[in-house]
């Protein structure tokens, strides 16, 4: 559960903005989407390896964005 400390004189829009930012940082929505379907550990590791290779190629300059 997210708790937002708001002052009495603080605007409700500012408090809502703080809540949204804190919600994004907690990554609860990403976790819910991940849990909707099961991915095998071998598929997860393969995706991580491919992602690491891609990042390394970008860093070395082989791929330009």
Structural notes for this entry:
This protein has helices at 12-26, 28-35, 41-60. The protein is elongated. With 65 residues, it is mostly helical. The chain contains three helices and no strands. Belongs to the bacterial ribosomal protein bS21 family. Keywords: Ribonucleoprotein, Ribosomal protein. InterPro entries: Ribosomal_bS21, Ribosomal_bS21_sf. This is Small ribosomal subunit protein bS21.
How is the topology of this model organized?
Elements: H1 12-26, H2 28-35, H3 41-60
Q: What's the pLDDT, averaged over the residues?
A: 90
Distance from N terminus to C terminus (CA atoms, Å) equals 38 Å
Largest sheet: none
Q: Give the overall shape.
A: elongated
| Share in helix | 55-70%
Radius of gyration based on Cα positions: 19 Å
Beta-strand percent range: under 5%
Helix count equals 3
H/E element sequence:
HHH
The structure class reads mainly alpha
By DSSP, the count of extended strands is 0
Our count of domains comes out at 1
Uncertain ranges: none
List keywords for this structure.
single chain, 65 residues, mainly alpha, 3 helices, 66% helix
Please outline what is shown here.
GO terms for molecular function: structural constituent of ribosome. The chain is 66% helix and 0% strand. It has helices spanning 12-26, 28-35, 41-60.
């Amino acid at each position: 559960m997210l708790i937002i400390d708001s002052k009495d004189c603080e605007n409700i829009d500012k408090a809502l903005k703080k809540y949204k930012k804190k919600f994004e940082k907690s990554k609860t929505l990403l976790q819910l989407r991940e849990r909707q379907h099961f991915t095998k550990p071998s598929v997860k590791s393969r995706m991580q390896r491919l992602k690491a290779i891609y990042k390394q190629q970008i860093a070395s300059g082989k791929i330009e964005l």
